[in-house]
Each structure stands twice: as C-alpha cells, then as structure tokens.
Specification:
Enolase-like, domain 1; FAD/NAD(P)-binding domain; five-stranded parallel beta sheet; nucleotide-binding; 3 domains; flavoprotein; alpha/beta
Length: 480
C-alpha cells in the first residue's frame, strides 16, 4: 500500500495542471497516465492541429500574394513529410516541456491504468518498468482523488474509422498524405477547422452539419459571416443536412447526404472525416467502487460546482469528464485544475464563471466569442442593445481583405443607451489573438463607456472593437 496526498487520474491539460498547482502548494502528488502526459490537446488536438493550420495559412498567403498583391509567387508543392516533421517537433518539444515541469515540481508520474477501489483508494496497473512497476498496486489519497481521463471522438453507425478512408479528429492529422477530396461531417469548431485546413491544402471539401447553421452554439451572426467566408474559399457548406449512408471503397468512401431541401446526393470522396463531437472516457475507472456513476450522457457531474467535487467528498472532476456548462476546452481545463488543486490544499478559490471563458475556432476566417449570444441574452430575459461593425470598416481590415465583423451584445440602459456588456463576438483574421480584451470586458461587467475611454492603436484590427464600443457609448467616430 502506497500513500500520497492527491492522486490524479489522467495527465491531459486538466490533470497535469491540477498536479502542478497542487505540488506548488506543497502537496505530495501522484499522476497516473496510461498514455502520454499532455493528453489529446497536446498530441492529437490543439497543438498539432494549430501547427497544421499555421502551415495552411502560409499556403493561403501565397495565393493571396499572387492574386491580390501582384507578387508573382506560385506554390510548387507541399512537402507533406517536411510539414509533418515540423508539426511533430513542436509537439515533442511541448511534451518534453510538460514532463520537465512535472519532474521539477516533484510530481510522481506513473505510466499505467488507474481504477478506483474506494472513496480514497486507487489501484494502478503499471505499463512501464522500473519506477513505474514499483509504483504499481494500491494507493491511498489522504486529501483526495482527481478524475481527469478526458474524452474520445464520437462516432456514428456505419464504416468504422480505419485511419485512412474514414477518420476521426484524433487521427486525421496522422492519416497518410493529403486527400484530393474530403467530406467533413460536423459543423462545430473541430469540423470547421479541419474543413478549412483541407481546403487550404488543395482538397475539394464538403462540410455537412445537421443543425441549420455552422457553429450552432455561437451567435447567429458569427455563423453567417463564417459560412460566407468558407463558401468564398470554395468549401461547399450543407446545413440542415444528414448523412444517410456511407460505404467504403478501395480508394475512398461513397456517401449519401440528404440536404435540407431536395433529393439525397451521392458523393465519392477520398476521405470521410467524422467530427460530430467528443464523448467522456470513463471505461476502466470503476466508478461504482467509490459510489459514483455517470449521468445519462456519460459525464461525471459534480455535486458542488464551486469546488468541482462529486457527491463523494474528496473526489473531484476536471476537463472533458465534466458536463455543461463546462466547455470541454483546454484553457477551461487549466482553470479547473487550478481550482481543484487549491481546493484540496485548503484554500478558497473563486468559482469558475464559464460565461467568461473565450471560445475560438481557428479556421480561415477565425471566430472568437465570449459571453452570451444575442439569442441567449434575450432568452434569459435581458433587454438588449447590439452593435455590429464589419472589419472592412477599418483600414487594417481592408488590408487583410477577408471580411469579418465585431458584434457586441449589451444590456439596454436607461434612455436607450447601452449598459453592461453581455457578449462580444468576432469573425475574421487573427481574432483569436483579439478576444482576450473582450474576456476582461465581459468578466469585469464593464459597460461601453468603460471601454470607450481606452484608446485602441491605429491601424489595427482591434480598432474595430474600439469603434463598436465608442458608438454604443454615444461617441461614434467612423461608424455610420
């Protein structure tokens, strides 16, 4: 029998952030991970996909240089092996960095599968040798246990993913070569990003979403501007459409799609990418041994959201195991890990406000939002006032020439003015780098007058944010 203060099961963003913070607070921490620390985000999601999307942006830049700016540049070819080698190097360096942080902090990382055996006990079956093997067996956690086992891609009935013709978001980056054509099933953030990536790399792309618009959880104007941008790039977008049938062929997949209107369509594509969401991973955790169970969607719901603590005192949950309002985003998982570590250390951290967590889609164009959409604000009984400005209304937006917008949703104040800002929504180039300001605006309950007194640099894309707030504050400058 081994003892420690905290046992963390799962070494993804939520798990390792819990471990690092708890160790910094002087607690003895054991982190059990059956694969690689860093989890999906580092090895199969956030980091490798954004590396690839950066390469895609460079490819798009060559076409823009030639077609818009008179730079006589041509793309000879994409060296796939060189591109993926750079991506893999970025992932490997980040992985070594996380491992180094954990080692320096004194976190004991055990490679193995962990399962609950009680409310304070865990059994670890090591997969490694040496120190890992010695750490196997029964562990007791004096302070508590943290569940951070993450998620896996959801799949649909039909051909099983084979990593070549039918792929998921976990394996599409590592599928062989560049497909000439791809059907992306799912118009959420993951599907939109991969549709954008494949189009930049020269593939014919069809994007299919069952809801009536892309990014259905975002503001309707975000969906509209995003769809316009994707269609302008040559991506076929089918919303309100469903996949009826898929059949694998020797060199691809034959799919039948029923659009919102009209007869079913049959398409032959080289690759089918299924991006219909992710499901929490709890297999092997043996939750029942501690008196826990998943909800009807497979999540482990906390009984106390302020502490992210389950109905079993001392067992906490972070990351993709959490149901909404948690967002299943890596940066939210980091914050959840910090909160749980500080709670287990006896501190009283401020509960998380998920409404102030930024949401970003790294497609071309990008989207970034924080707070409530216009529809959500109205549904919650707010009397709202909105203001929308095209990015091309400012000089830097014209330079980029990619369209986009800034939209602010605010509470209507007395006299018809604008009061507390409820949401900010951005579409356009590099808006992922602009949303942090909006997070502070929404998180600090600012109103447009608070923002309007601060000067945005000219000429920048962020200037559009300043212009929207100037107008809402009754001090409009360039906006007509």
């Amino acid at each position: 029998m081994h003892e420690t203060d905290i046992i963390v099961i799962g070494g993804g963003t939520g798990g390792y952030s819990t471990a690092l913070r708890a160790a910094a607070l002087g607690l003895d921490v054991v982190l059990a991970e059956r694969d690689l620390v860093g989890g999906t985000c580092l090895h199969r999601g956030c980091i490798p996909s954004k590396a690839m999307l950066h390469a895609a942006e460079l490819v798009d830049g060559i076409a823009e240089a030639r077609e818009r700016w008179g730079v006589k540049a041509t793309l000879e070819a994409v060296d796939w092996s060189a591109l993926t080698a750079t991506r893999d190097d970025i992932v490997a360096r980040n992985h070594r960095g996380v491992e180094g942080h954990l080692s320096h902090a004194g976190v004991r990382v055990v490679r193995g599968s962990a399962a609950l055996t009680g409310a304070r006990t865990v059994r670890v079956e090591p997969t490694g040798t040496g120190a890992d093997a010695e750490a196997g067996g029964e562990w007791t956690a004096r302070r508590g246990i943290v569940l951070a086992t993450g998620s896996r891609p959801r799949t649909l009935p039909g051909p099983a993913p084979d990593g070549r013709r039918v792929v998921t978001s976990d394996d599409t980056l590592y599928a062989p070569g560049l497909p000439a054509s791809v059907l992306v099933l799912g118009g959420g953030a993951i599907g939109v990003e991969y549709a954008s990536l494949h189009r930049s790399m020269g593939a014919d792309v069809t994007l299919v979403e069952a809801a009536d618009r892309l990014l259905p959880l975002e503001d309707a104007d975000v969906s509209r501007h995003l769809t316009r941008g994707l269609k302008k790039r040559g991506i076929e977008v089918l919303t309100g459409a469903r996949l009826e049938q898929a059949e694998t062929l020797p060199d691809g997949v034959r799919v039948t799609v029923r659009p919102a209107r009209g007869e079913p369509r049959t398409l032959d594509v080289e690759r089918l990418l299924v991006a219909v969401g992710r499901a929490p991973v709890t297999d092997g955790l043996n939750l029942g041994a501690a008196g826990l169970a998943t909800d009807d969607r497979g999540f482990v719901a906390p009984a106390d959201w302020a502490r992210l603590e389950t109905a079993v005192p001392g067992i906490h949950v972070v990351g993709d195991l959490l149901p909404p309002p948690s967002l299943g985003l890596a940066h939210a998982s980091f914050a959840e890990g910090l909160l749980v570590a500080e709670t287990l250390a006896g501190l009283s951290p401020r509960p998380l406000d998920y409404a102030t967590v930024p949401r970003v889609t790294y497609s071309s164009p990008q989207t970034a939002s924080v707070g409530l959409s216009e529809a959500q604000a109205r549904e919650r009984g707010h009397d709202v006032v909105t203001n929308t400005l095209p990015l091309t209304a400012v000089a830097k937006g014209m330079v980029h020439g990619q369209g986009g917008m800034v939209k602010v949703v605010a509470e209507r104040a007395g006299g018809g003015g604008a009061g507390q800002v409820l949401g900010v929504h951005l579409v356009g180039p590099h808006v992922s780098e602009m949303v942090a300001e909006s997070q502070l605006i929404v998180g600090w309950d600012a109103d447009p007058a608070d923002v309007a007194q601060h000067i945005h640099p000219h000429p920048t894309l962020s200037e559009a944010v300043g212009e929207v707030f100037l107008t809402l504050a009754g001090r409009g400058l360039h906006q007509i």
